[in-house]
Design a protein that fits this description.
Largest sheet: 9 strands, mixed
Strand content: 15-25%
Shape: globular
Radius of gyration: 24 Å
Number of strands: 19
Structural class: alpha/beta
Helix content: 25-40%
């Protein structure tokens, strides 16, 4: 953290100054385990704990100041606020304004993190770039990201997630993006928001923090993001693959074993690129990265190198080849849209042996959960997957639909527990096979993947 003084925090919350105004803050934390002398501690109320109960501990550990919304003690080193989460966002917004650098805000139903990583890969070719780490994309993660800004950073890429209306608005107002990106409008969080129109409304809240001269980059292949000129009072740049009326499109897409070549068409210029991964969604990410890079003055060579050296983080379609078996670990999350992308990748990779899909539930689909898992069976039927092994509550409907279909010749089995699923995978795998693991995080498919790595490979 760069220079931020206690007096500024008191001014921000319109409190009388009780400390020397020149005292510098070391860092701001919501975790007492990380508290060091000179820190500020913010007590956040969560589902399983109340950080306000740890305020006294934080002060004993050396915190110079604490902020809480449920603190019942009397201590002049505590600022009492109405909402600690809002206070955290307010501090991060105040700190963000100290930096005159481009901030790129990203939201969308799927692909936020991989798009963030792509933009980061490109902008890093020009200078130091701050990005959201992991999935710290909520009203705690976004402030943490912004408070990591330093004078060395030339760019910042901030991911913004949500589960309800109003959340993106608060995050966008905190980080004040110069450029906003919406990757798509899908069915993630439809359990809370009830309709895709409400999801669209929630994602468009990113505009609330973008100034009138800011830029909004939208997926023109998404019907809910196309033709929003009358709704959005900002400069819009549309990207796409299927919709040739978009401002920037990708064509001549050629997939190889673990890479993809394509051309980006910008006005009348065709520019060749290569990305070290597969899947249509990764092409979208690359187009967005190209647009952001161009808007921020990067050369074509810098953008090309950023796309070519892109590395996906976490459990997002991580591809390993071990003992002659190709493993695709895509256990970070799952939705109808991302499931289609994952199966598309499975189709693109050539294999003379088995193509195995290990499937877990797609969560947060609410009343549409059963119907979407039934629809998934039709996507599998049109693929070249040879075996489907499933676990969870709703994948049983996928397996039932497959096994009831007259044209289904693939082995399709639902498992009640992970141990029997692991045993089946272990007995099924052989040299030359291709296996994809795909599920929402709540299914904990990564634990099954770990067992397979330990016991089979």
């Amino acid at each position: 953290m760069e220079n931020l003084k206690v007096s500024e925090i008191f001014d921000l919350f319109k409190m009388g100054i009780i400390f020397d105004k020149d005292i510098a803050i070391n860092k701001i934390s919501t975790d007492t385990r990380e508290i060091e002398k000179g820190d500020i501690f913010i007590g956040i109320r969560g589902e399983n704990f109340d950080g306000n109960f740890y305020i006294d501990d934080a002060l004993l550990k050396g915190a110079i100041l604490a902020i809480g919304d449920n603190y019942t003690g009397i201590n002049e080193s505590v600022i009492k606020v109405g909402d600690s989460r809002k206070a955290f966002l307010d501090i991060s917004n105040y700190y963000r304004k100290k930096f005159d650098i481009p901030v790129i805000g990203i939201t969308g139903s799927v692909g936020k993190t991989s798009t963030k990583d792509m933009i980061y890969s490109i902008l890093s070719k020009k200078g130091l770039c701050l990005k959201t780490e992991g999935n710290l994309n909520n009203d705690i993660g976004v402030p943490k990201t912004l408070l990591n800004l330093s004078n060395s950073d030339r760019f910042a890429v901030v991911e913004m997630g949500m589960s309800n209306l109003g959340e993106i608005s608060r995050l966008s107002k905190a980080c004040k993006p110069n450029i906003g990106v919406i990757t798509n409008i899908g069915m993630s969080h439809i359990e809370n928001l009830k309709s895709v129109k409400n999801i669209q409304k929630a994602k468009l809240e990113i505009l609330d923090g973008i100034d009138s001269d800011g830029i909004l980059i939208l997926n023109g292949d998404d019907k809910l993001l196309w033709n929003l000129e009358k709704t959005v009072n900002r400069q819009i740049i549309y990207f796409g693959i299927d919709n040739i009326d978009c401002d920037i499109i990708a064509t001549n897409i050629i997939s190889k074993s673990i890479s993809t070549r394509f051309n980006i068409i910008d006005k009348k210029e065709s520019i060749p690129f290569e990305i070290p991964c597969l899947g249509k969604h990764n092409i979208y990410n690359a187009i967005v990265g190209y647009i952001v890079g161009k808007q921020l003055g990067l050369s074509k060579q810098e953008i090309y190198l950023g796309i070519k050296t892109y590395i996906s983080t976490g459990m997002r379609q991580k591809i390993d080849i071990i003992s002659g078996i190709t493993i695709i670990n895509d256990c970070y999350n799952s939705s109808p849209e991302s499931m289609v992308s994952a199966i598309d990748i499975l189709n693109k990779i050539k294999s003379k042996k088995e193509k195995i899909l290990v499937l877990g539930d797609m969560l947060e689909l609410g009343d549409l959960s059963i119907s979407e898992h039934i629809k998934l069976a039709n996507i599998i039927l049109s693929s070249d997957i040879t075996r489907v092994f499933a676990i969870g509550n709703n994948t049983k409907y996928t397996i039932e639909t497959l096994n009831n279909h007259i044209n289904n010749s693939r082995e399709s089995i639902f498992f009640e527990d992970s141990s029997s699923l692991i045993d089946k995978i272990k007995s099924s795998l052989s040299y030359g096979d291709l296996i994809l693991f795909k599920a929402s995080r709540g299914i904990k498919m990564e634990e099954i993947v770990k067992k397979i790595y330990e016991e089979c490979l």
